[in-house]
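Good morning,

Both structures are done.
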Amino acid sequence: MGQNAVARGLPAEAKAVDLVPPSTTIITKGSLLPGAASLDIASLPVDREQEVVSLSKSDYVEPDTRSDAERIIERPKPESRLSATPPVWKLESTYKAKRGEKQKIIAQKRTRLAEENCLAKAVYFEARTETELGQLAVAKVILNRVKDPLYPKTICGVVYQGSDRRNSCQFSFACDGLPDEIKNQTAWTHSKVIAEKALAGDETMRIMGAATHYHADYVKPRWSYQMRRLIKIGRHIFYADT
């Protein structure tokens, strides 16, 4: 079709109408906009919240009559706020503290196991053929020495005191020159149980009082004349300082 073509069905005198894009500006009667104001959909600025007013309809919202000051949103109370993330230095110090506490607990546990092992060895080598009471009595002597200022402050220190000199130690097995080899596993297991009971403060040890020495009944050491004899249990005679 050429430029001079006429649309079918239209009168000859009809003029062509220029096509224009629809306007984005809306001006309607009854608009809520004041005066000759126009509403540009493409560049509508949002200055404030829209207000819905009554237009004699049954479904309307009451207008907000509060002042601008009253519309200010209340800030949340301090206790309702989420706590902020602690600073890095505080997190690191907390981690180091927890790690230090953990290492301290592990060290204490290792020390206790070592002390328990030393006590069990003394019971095993010194009194494994004795009754349970006789074994507890030997363990009690060692624990009493730990409390005595004249002796080392640890169980292992008491058990192996003087072990660097042949036949000059407090407990013969510690310096007799023979290896501390555990051959009777049943007796060793029982010795560990005795050590645990002694460390827990077994009530049967109360009869030992403050005993710090003992010897077998087939020997008579010179130091025994200067000690106070307490009791004989099995093949051992127990003494306390006078």
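Second structure follows.
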Amino acid sequence: MTKKIDTFVTTVAFVGQPNVGKSTLLNAMIGAKIAPTTRKPQTTRRIIRGIKTLGNYQQIYFDTPGVLRKETGLDQFMRDQIFQALSNVEQVVAITDAKDKIGKHIEFLRQIKQSTEKNKQVFMLAINKIDELKDKSALLDLIAQYSKELGDIEIIPLSATRHDGLQNLFDALNKAAKPAEFMFNPDFFTDASEKEIVAELIREKAMLELSEELPYRLAVTVDHFDESHREDSQKPIIHIEAILHVERKSQKAIVIGKGGAEIKTIGMRARKDIEHLLQCHVMLKLFVRVEPNWTTSPKGLRKLGY
């Protein structure tokens, strides 16, 4: 006798231009900060998977880098991450910014829609940042324009920062969920390791602190993650040592800052998020190392995990 499966699972890719809020949406959907979020392009570099389980439904989200047009080895890695995500999911949610004219996104959206039709995937559009619209009536016009250009697709207005419309997105994605055993324990919200998330959170704080060009030349690795005292009843603590990798000596000086002020600020800001994530006191030490031309060197890219 065949066992009846009463749980449903679906896999979903979040795609879109830089700065539309893909990572913010991922964090909001799962209720935890695992993906770095800044207003600077290329904050997300690799696929980050989030997991949301509610009732009998489990959704696995693939956050992806923004659309890229540069041609370094790092750019190619990020482009490959987008295609990898698109080839491994059942549904694709394209995300746009409610403040943008549709011309900024429509070519990309048409390409994604064509790809999903070819691969028999569900395609829908999420219009993010609706809370930032001064004229709320403009939203209806925006939805009408996207509908005219893209045809009969599901369009969901939402605000990831205010958690408005998230349940509507969850419900819409459940329509295509298939009967299956849960892929992950219902308590899990990601399959990324704590070390991986910690590295991304540190890089986020560095991006927020540093000048426009430097963040793109920056990578972070966690070299020491000592949790031997994590369960200590007197003083639970995790000791972490991370390295911020840059391409030139001049960049190293910028990251360190005058009298070490810059790296100290990065560390203080990162430690707060890391402690919230790990639910434990953290001793965080940051170092800066020069890895010449790592964004264009295959060896450098491999060494830093790209």
